Amino acid sequence: MYYTTERPFTGEPLLGPTTHRARVRAETFLTATGVMLDTSAPRDNAMLTECYVAPYGGFVLAATCCDRPLLYPEGELIGDATGHDVTILRFHPLRGTSFDILPYGSERWLCRYLAWRRRSGNLWLIPSAVKAPYVRVCGWGLELVDTAPFDSEGERNAGIILAIDNPSFEGRI
User: Which of 21, 25, 42, 68 is 20 to 30 A off residue 93, Cα-Cα?
Assistant: First the structure.
């Protein structure tokens, strides 16, 4: 059987192409973070084709329309090979955008995170349902913290950004 994780060793891309709408959300998300990208990394390394590499931020972003748990083995391989955190942006045309994060060195994915932001504030990834760390996203990377960036459930709900029809990750509250 031919496994996707064997592809980099045969010179093929690890991740397949994704939809235009998923790529637009990924690019808008990265613009909102202010992170600097290495645009040559995907050309220089077939494993990183279809990925956005932020070497100074210490993370790699892949965009997809695939459901969970697809791309977890590929994400783990990318994290091991690059020494960076891996984030998978998952776009669904009805449910919006969610994120799965694999911190470098961890064996556990942080799943079903949603974008959250105050107007003119930091962009955060917050857990959708479970008690888990919150992730501050900025130009220097992903920072896991235990304290929520909001004070109430109403503020939490008002700041969630699903980017369904509008791909912007600008804050609303």
Answer: 42
- Going by pLDDT thresholds of 50, 70 and 90, the confidence category of residue 118 is confident
- What are the beta bridge partners of residue 96? 92
Does residue 149 fall inside a structural domain? yes
pLDDT above 70 covers what percent of the chain? 93
Could you tell me which of 115, 113, 106 has the C-alpha nearest to residue 85? Answer: 106
Range of the domain at 110: 4-161
Q: Does residue 17 belong to any structural domain of this protein?
A: yes
Total number of domains in the chain: 1
70-112 pLDDT tens trace: 999 999 999 999 999 999 999 999 999 999 999 999 999 999 9
